Amino acid sequence: MAAHLSYGRVNLNILREVARKDLREFLDKCAGSKAIVWDEYLTGPFGLIAQYSLLKEHEVEKMFTLKSGRVPPADVKNIIFFVRPRLELMDIIAENVFRSVFVSRFQAPQFLTIFSPSFLLQECYLENDQTSLYHTAKGLINLQALYGTIPQIYGKGECARHVANMMLRMKREFAGSQNQILPVFDTLLLLDRNVDLLTPLATQLTYEGLIDEIYGITNGYVKLPPEKFAQKKQGEASKDLPTEPKKLQLNSAEELYAEIRDKNFNAVGAALSKKAKIISAAFEGRHNAKTVGEIKQFVSQLPHMQAARSSLANHTSIAELIKDITTSEAFFDNLTVEQEFMTGVETDKVNPYIEDCIAQKDPLIKILRLVCMQSVCNNGLKQKVFDYYKREILQTYGYEHILTLNNLEKASLLKPQTSSRNNYPTIRKTLKLWLEDANEQNPNDISYVYSGYAPLSVRLTQVLARPGWRSIEEVLKMLPGPHFEERQQLPAGLHKKRQQGENRTTLVFFLGGVTYAEIAALRFLSQMEDSGMEYIIATTKLLNGTTWIKSLMDRPESQIS
Amino acid sequence: MTVSFQIFFTLFVQMMKSKADEEDYWNSSKFKAFTFDDEDDEFSTLKESKRTVNSIRCLVEEDDDKEEVEKVSWNGEPVSSKTLLWLLKQMFSIVVSLEKFRSLQDKLLLLDSCVAAHDGNVITAVLIYLKRTLSKEVLFRELEPRQTALSHLIHYLTETRDQRLLLELYTCLTCFCFQLLQYKEHLSIADENKRRDFLKSCLSLPFSPEDSSHVQDHYTLMERQVIIETTDRRAERGEKVERALILNMPLITTLSYCCLYHYSESEGTFSSPLNIRQTFKISEKQFFVTALGARAKLKAWSDVDALFTSRNWLGFTRKKSPLGFQRVVDILQKNSAPTQVLQDYVALVDDAELRITLAQKHKCHDIVINTYRDLKDRQQLLGYRGKVERGSGEERKIDELLNNLQIRWKN
After folding, report:
1. Does A285 touch chain B (CB under 8 A)?
2. pLDDT digits (tens, 9 = 90+) for B372-394
3. What is the DSSP string of A261-282?
4. What whole-number distance in Å separates Cα of residue A441 and Cα of residue A443?
5. What keywords would UniProt list here (chain A) (predicted)?
6. CA-to-CA distance for B18 and B97, rounded, in angstroms?
7. pLDDT digits (tens, 9 = 90+) for B48-59
């Protein structure tokens, strides 16, 4: 059981258990031995719900990845395909089945195709595939079935509006079945990613954010260069360094990680130091253990202490790896330009640093992040500047990138100016998005996650709670998409009587992706003394500037081979 | 089936349920039975699926729920309509029921309702139906103002690789949005000659003016790369040198190649760097950086020098470089330029502080000494004495300066 999911107001284990129950029930329906053929995109997310041991309990004997050709031989009664509902996969499944049935010498197994349940994370397609919004709405309906109807819905953005409309309509269609569960969430906030295009482009500066930016966190795991983690046995010369990347799991079940993940990276060193002293002192405790009872107690603590020490070692290594990068000149120069754009410095001219980077043929994604940031902070680039960057990029990296640039333009990330009015400075001033001298060690504002820049999306969330969106009507109108408020009727008697000092709970749903830094900022808000609000975050996917831009780059071939 | 897979919930399904009696519908002469043998239907393109479905007898016979269902003829095999519907849902859905929408108005209303419902799978299913039952002209005309539906259709045609129809569609559209998707297909053509010809064919598509010029440039570049490749490979037969292939490389990379191997050619040839610069309108800065990098790589220091000089009516003069001299020094140093060469360029750095830093970094002692002398900074000069070699010319020079009573040191 994932104990760390039970902490806090909302017991996320419920969700996990429901999924596991569904899965178990389904597996039991197919009596007899089974083999599962996986769409490899799903193995990660499924791993968050169930391990192989669970599947084994339900007679899953073999597992394969979905590939063209024949299903490998397996003497099982059932073969089950777990796939995303995608057209190109259907053909592969058909091919698998066709070839297998005719080649198998054993009794032909039964074939069943299963589409992954709708509440698992789905990607938003650039081709404006509205299906993902539908899944989101459906997912939220399912959520309400478990956690109770959410009485207030707020939203900003086109997609938010669509999702809310779908939710309300679906609810009407199921009218008659009253949900008697006491509501856990007081408010639902739906936010379009394109209401805040700036935040994902900026380099995250929290510990977890930097790990994601540099190494990438997938399904709670990160792969790291192994050299720093090589174990040296005492007295032996170190053996050949491992070549396999070191895979580490990162979640709040690990005490130290829970403590440092949301800190600004500049505050991590001190935290690790402090922890090292505590652990050291704990181990020293063995000298104080005199009686048998005391020794016994010390020994019983050992596993916990050893785990803590190993955790400290891992994170010290990771912090060292990150520090090498954050103290480099390239990182500093890049961050400087980012902050210049964020504070509105010369966003209307060709930036010399960007020019130099293109001339040096730095990675294209780095260039794209910067030019997009300039464009967003300027509400579109001056035509001359836009044309210049475009030409330089196409000439240096290849003409085929017209496709990427086109996608970025469609997403409003990199576009020529249409009107001369740039609202960004007004938005920045009104919502206090830039705070000089942000306190990184003991923050008092969400801007610490970017060392000065407060994520727009989180600021909007913060203002919604207090003093409310009425006070920023003008600014909201400057941001894309409609904003709205809806109420859902609760059955009589379910209205919550709030205890003195009890927090309200808001579910913030990011449509189109969210960064770890934004999550850290929201957690910070939850922990603030006088906030009176706890935030739970949901999203269609986790992203950073690099993965986001990559998803908007055009891929020539389809992913599944 | 009670598994939790995607159910295609939409408005119009409900509409269907509440409409005319199901019994009448199935039995009426208006109903055209859907069969997989239908030659010009979309499902026949999913050949494997078709054959598979036909051969899965076990699925066909299975029927979990004991509901009473209508029998529908399908491929000659009697099959419960419930199973048929389930099978269709697996692939692509409720096309069977769509036959009821006959008039253009009904069809468009159907399409608009589906778009409003936001379920992509259903939108695509309806589009397939419309594609089958409407003429191309009417379909394209009606889809143009319906961006969402149009996107879905293009997405579908791309996935099923219906190139012919895609091309027809793009040519009909008056907006510029989708021609690029056609252009994109060049990436899947491996052979360089075929790719070049494909790019040529794209030139006639109605792109936006900016995109049009980029596609034109791409074609011109590709054409040129093929020519240069062929000529160079032929010339190379005698030599052992393995040169980097420039096929499908970006423009600047191609320019770099030409600066390496075709630098001194006259402006009339395809591979002359100056010709490339002019044809593709490469910026002065980009050209400069590329040429500098290439000549430095070959340690052709005189060529490097020539980049900076320009003739004016008095004779030769040093021109200011479009690149800061610090960058120049950086590039030269990366290519292991000797100190004497580096020195010349470090000396040209305007900012004194920067000049000193660079000079110290690259051990251009003379420059450091001269700059401290110019700044009249005695302390720093004294400090620097320790950094030069004992007994060297530089040490003597420093001593001379320190002992020079005519210099008015500031410290």
Report:
1. no
2. 888 888 888 888 888 888 888 88
3. TTSBGGGHHHHHHHHHHHHHHH
4. 6
5. Membrane, Protein transport, Transport
6. 13
7. 444 444 443 333
